[in-house]
């Protein structure tokens, strides 16, 4: 079944308010917190403003690529429920989780079965495992059939160039679905009409 939706790369208050006040809000909203190569990157002062809002039942996620102590200390008091960590080894993942008392989404970038199997090193120290494409900010997809061997006991999220129309393909899978680029217009800004379509459509396909 589709467990729920994550909308990633939110960077403005209008979009965030629209998402949180939608009749079918997503389970997660992600903010690019330290990866400056992404056009969705949010500077600290703006990030602080965005997450200082009543988020109701939606969890806020700080998306962090190989974070250093500086950014971790900077955001430790912000209104985040999860840190989504790329390029962080299992030992450091555990340290971050315990030190900052935060839930962790471990993000793995996938191109092969060997990449998928790395989840075994993180399963016990992560609350969620995100299987993403190799493109980071470029929304590159991968063969989702590579995930078929993962036990149902693993709490899974999937990303990587997923379109709204792809949602029914996951109806019989126990995944959270993470979308970003497919919700944007030609200028790279989040499109509220696409977000509305996603949230309505995803609700219809949750079981």
Can you walk me through this structure?
The protein is α/β, with parallel strands linked by helices. The protein has one domain: Aldolase class I (TIM Barrel, Alpha-Beta Barrel). It has helices at residues 13-20, 44-51, 69-75, 90-100, 113-117, 119-122, 192-205; strands spanning 2-8, 28-32, 59-65, 82-86, 103-109, 128-132, 156-158, 175-179. Strands 1-2-3-4-5-6-7-8 form an eight-stranded parallel barrel. It is globular and about 40 Å long. The model has no long low-confidence stretch (mean pLDDT 92).
Brief digest:
The protein has 207 residues and is α/β, with parallel strands linked by helices. The protein has one domain (2-205): TIM Barrel. The chain has helices spanning 13-20, 44-51, 69-75, 90-100, 113-117, 119-122, 192-205; strands at residues 2-8, 28-32, 59-65, 82-86, 103-109, 128-132, 156-158, 175-179.
